[in-house]
From TrEMBL, chains A, B:
InterPro entries (UniProt xref): PurS, PurS-like_sf
GO cellular component, one term: cytoplasm
Predominant cellular place of this UniProt entry's protein: cytoplasm
Biological pathway: Purine metabolism; IMP biosynthesis via de novo pathway; 5-amino-1-(5-phospho-D-ribosyl)imidazole from N(2)-formyl-N(1)-(5-phospho-D-ribosyl)glycinamide: step 1/2
GO molecular function, a single term: ATP binding
Coiled-coil annotated spans: none
Organism: Streptomyces echinoruber
Descriptive protein name: Phosphoribosylformylglycinamidine synthase subunit PurS
PANTHER family xref list: PHOSPHORIBOSYLFORMYLGLYCINAMIDINE SYNTHASE SUBUNIT PURS (PTHR34696:SF1)
Length: 82, 82
């Protein structure tokens, strides 16, 4: 996601469109990127550290973006996606 | 995120670049969008249902994309973003 101090015109456009579309009560919208990485084998601390390094050096532009790395349970995703 | 059956050239490009960059053991990469919505007041079931509707009708293209809606704890984000 873009850092809070970086202007996000895409998010602002979405936010400004919402009341017109009948959705109130949303005070801010930010748009960003999301990467899903499928890892061979178990995701232990070493693998997670490597992925964090990868995110920091290649996937995110850390001058203007923050990132978080999170492990997802495939079963949980299957449940959530309808 | 793009549905599993939809080709994701951006994700593929990232995946193919990884071994060259010294990152092995990643079998798949998918790239997608992420929206952070700041809600006025508490996020109860009614608000969540509205947001799900909003995601389905305006933020995602459900012909080619799946989406998940998740409530984030601001404290948790502050912790994760270093």
């Amino acid at each position: 996601m873009l850092k809070p101090e970086i202007l996000d015109p895409q998010g602002q456009a979405v936010q400004r469109a919402l009341p017109r579309l009948g959705f109130d009560g949303i005070s801010d919208v930010r748009q960003g990127k999301r990467f899903e990485l499928e890892v061979d084998g178990p995701v232990d601390d070493a693998v997670l550290a490597r992925i964090r390094e990868l995110a920091e050096s290649f996937l995110a532009n850390t001058v203007i973006e923050d990132f978080t790395v999170r492990v997802e349970d495939p079963a949980e995703i299957a449940e959530a996606v309808k």
